[in-house]
């Protein structure tokens, strides 16, 4: 590659970067949707992550206090210790979904090996809350009997074997798909606007008359979009690390950055293709945002893809973001490289295809 070509690429790159930094509207169009989605996820996790319940402990004996402690340690409930009157008021005001009562004679009944019921009064206004309650209360009771050991009238042995090394909170799990969404949005919006602006402002004529090759124009556009997109994604990734939302370790820092770079390259190439084809900034903003959001949802970005409907799982197999999500989750959350080669291969091929499509669209538009 000659020195004049490199200088031309550098000039186009600097120009596009300067225009991007001056245009707050375009930056907002890139950042606001992922931030809004992250906020919704945070509110949703706070609302459904742990069910709010009122716990009334009428038994001050050892068994009653042990049962109370097990409920507090269950990590399923947001517990408010209350008197019967306070619990009833919270229940009436729909501030808790249930009242769990440990009766005054609970210890006595346990010592006598008599039935020792835990009283649950539930407001089944929402099946998600109600099912959590129906699963969690029996589980807490089972833990209570296990803790009695050989003294328990019901011999219980529990053994949990986790597939993963650590538990990931619901909100944490939504951070990486949001970063993928940000990379996709930024690449599409930034690159499509940069390409379309050349025709809308007629500056494309100046480039065509300049002693530079079409190759220089295309590479300069792609490079500017890729660098801004990747750096923006990396900044959010580092911020999530500082805030304690994600914890990549060792080599998985590099694999995470590789995956983000491939997603950024894919979205940048697709953005250049859209911008060169439409040649108007307003349409490309709307279309780019819609494409990014549809790709995000079709890749199962709002949940665990393995538990989504079968038709969505089948469709997600053809969406490049699916493989970006999977690779990032394995690297960041589980320090694993499960199917990493497959994910990198698919993302690389999709990035090359998008770049090829962007190059073809720019060449046709310039030639036309």
Major β-sheet strand ordering: 2-1-3-4
Question: Structural class per helix/strand content?
Answer: mainly alpha
Strand content: 5-15%
- How far do the termini sit from each other? 26 Å
The strand count comes to 4
Name the average pLDDT.
Answer: 83
Instruction: Please tell me how large the radius of gyration is.
Output: 28 Å
**Total separate domains:** 2
Quickly count the helices: 14
Helix content: 55-70%
Helix and strand element order:
HHEHEHEHEHHHHHHHHH
Shape: elongated
Biggest pleated-sheet summary: 4 strands, mixed
Uncertain stretches of 5 or more adjacent residues = none
List the helices and strands and how they pair.
Elements lengths: L2 H20 L1 H25 L2 E7 L4 H12 L3 E5 L2 H9 L5 E5 L3 H6 L7 E4 L4 H21 L22 H31 L2 H7 L4 H29 L9 H27 L2 H18 L11 H7 L3 H15 L5 H28 L1
Helix pairs in contact: 1-9, 2-7, 3-6, 7-9, 7-10, 7-11, 7-13, 9-10, 9-14, 10-11, 10-13, 10-14, 13-14
Quickly list its features.
6% strand, 2 domains, abc type-2 transporter like fold, 4-stranded mixed β-sheet, 368 residues, 69% helix, mainly alpha
Explain this structure:
There is one protein chain. The chain is mainly alpha-helical and about 375 residues long. It contains 14 helices and 4 strands. It folds into 2 domains: about 240 residues, no CATH class; about 100 residues, abc type-2 transporter like fold (3-Layer(aba) Sandwich), CATH 3.40.1710. Strands 2-1-3-4 form a 4-stranded mixed sheet, sandwiched between helices. The longest helix has about 30 residues. It is elongated.
